[in-house]
Amino acid sequence: NSWLDDLLEHLSKGFLGLTFNCARCHDHKYDPIGQPDYYRLRAFFEPYQIRTEMVPGEADFQKDGIPRAFDCNAETPTYLFVRGDEKMPRKNRPLLPGLPELLAPSGLPIRPVTLPLEAHTPGLRPHVLENYLRQAEARIAAAKQTLAQIREKPPKAEAEAKLALDLAIKSLAAAELQPPMLRARAAADRARFSQPVAKNARELARAAALAEKKAALATAEENLARAELELARAAGNAKKTAEQKRNTARAARDQASKALENPGETYTSLSGALKTKESNVESAASLAKPFPTTSTGRRSALAAWMTEARNPLTARVAVNHIWMRHFGRPLVATVFDFGRKGALPTHPELLDWLACELVENGWSMKHLHRLMLTSDAYRRTSSSAGADSANRSRDDDNRYLWRMNPLRMEAQVVRDALLYLAGELDERLGGPTIPANDETSRRRSLYFFHSHNEYNRFLAIFDDANVLECYRRAESVVPQQALALQNSRLALESAEKVARRIIASDDAGFARAAFQTVLGVAPTAEELA
């Protein structure tokens, strides 16, 4: 369950600024968090599991699904692991969800949550049927194309040509049964799960079962035809394997034919989500269970407490992160540790005031951004040239913000800025991920696939986020960054396109226009010289 330990660590560090993970094996050495407190926090997530849901326009769950959390097994108990060892659970004392007394002295009210229909039956969402139908139509088009090719240019051997034509015909027949079968299953689902249940629900269920079994028989016929063709093409040792495959396909065809004789009322509901295996419950029985109609309410209770106005931590931690991204340095240097071992805030009153502003304005991040970006501190120059010598001598590292901290663009912003200047940035929101080293995509950099093993090399040069340290990015200035901007394909192509967009009659005019285009401000005479 290392994934669950990771979840608790990043939940507590990222939202509460507390290192709960230090209490997994023993009581926390600095903060009032006992080892049982760690496992009581874990109890909020013990039933937790992840599923991937289908999104409009994409039928591939694994590649393009959206991850969603849900409570899969509400009855799963939580035990304290002696010295943090999963092999040594203290089963005589199961723990209930809770928080340290210092944070929630009166406990949290936890009430089960009744889920809406489309949450526990995601196949009812309109885009699910649309996605499957789009997939089925593509299959029909491909089958028609294959059939046309076989008829136009059949294999030279007569026996093989006949088998290839038979396979193409049966592939098309199987494909053409998919759309009506999908529509029948969707109609049966809507009738079955409507409130009250539709009067014709059983009739629609029988129609769906019949359509599904017809499609299954057609697919079995297609598979048998494919096995027959492979057997005809096989030679030597491969022939025995092909014969076994043909016999298996024939048995499956016979079984599908028998099932069609009495289709009954049982059919498979359209699947709009799939359970993942990266969870605390991975048994086949668990994965096969339908999605629950209720949630334990544990995570809802925890989320309500975390965003409560009286919570002393969440708003301050959020403010600290936002301040760090605008000003280059946080108000509390240990961004994930607000405990006794953490650093003291440089401006405690400012931190408290901004936290109150965030909460009192409905947790509006936009309000917080506006406050910071229109502040006098943000609009100060980052240059120390001509500054008061007293400021430089007393606060050389700018702890008290007498000037703005110089900031470097984050890795993603560097790439996006190059594309934007070239007029090629695709600003559309959402959609599937981009392969890590796709150099042709013009979508925003946040859509790149990013993992410990796969990452975009251009972004990595500019200190892209480390997947194992998600609280504060490292910042460096190294020669490789200058080389990437000078020699990379992206930089060279973008520079050429920017140059083409700038219209000027002389070199000075070109330099002035280029300066303003890239930096957004008009150059001074000294900068142009």
In short:
With 529 residues, the protein is mostly helical. The chain has 4 domains: 2-115 and 277-302, no CATH class; 126-261; 307-394, no CATH class; 411-528, no CATH class. The chain has helices at residues 2-16, 35-43, 61-64, 117-120, 126-152, 158-176, 178-193, 201-233, 238-261, 284-288, 298-306, 314-327, 348-360, 365-373, 389-394, 411-421, 457-461, 479-487, 489-501, 507-519, 525-528, and strands at 48-53, 66-71, 113-114, 273-275, 294-295.
Describe this structure in words.
The chain has 529 residues and is mainly alpha-helical. It folds into four domains: 140 residues, no CATH class; 136 residues; 88 residues, no CATH class; 118 residues, no CATH class. 50% of the residues lie in helices and 4% in strands. Helix 5 packs antiparallel against helix 7, helix 8 runs antiparallel to helix 9 and helix 16 runs parallel beside helix 19.
Q: How confident is the prediction overall: mean pLDDT? A: 91
Strand order of the largest sheet: 2-1-4
Q: Strand-residue fraction?
A: under 5%
- Beta strand count: 5
Please write out the topology.
Blueprint (H helix, E strand, L loop, with lengths): L1 H15 L18 H9 L4 E6 L7 H4 L1 E6 L41 E2 L2 H4 L5 H27 L5 H19 L1 H16 L7 H33 L4 H24 L11 E3 L8 H5 L5 E2 L2 H9 L7 H14 L20 H13 L4 H9 L15 H6 L16 H11 L35 H5 L17 H9 L1 H13 L5 H13 L5 H4 L1
Antiparallel strand pairs: 1-2, 1-4, 3-5
Helix pairs in contact: 5-6, 5-7, 6-8, 7-8, 8-9, 12-13, 12-14, 16-19, 18-19
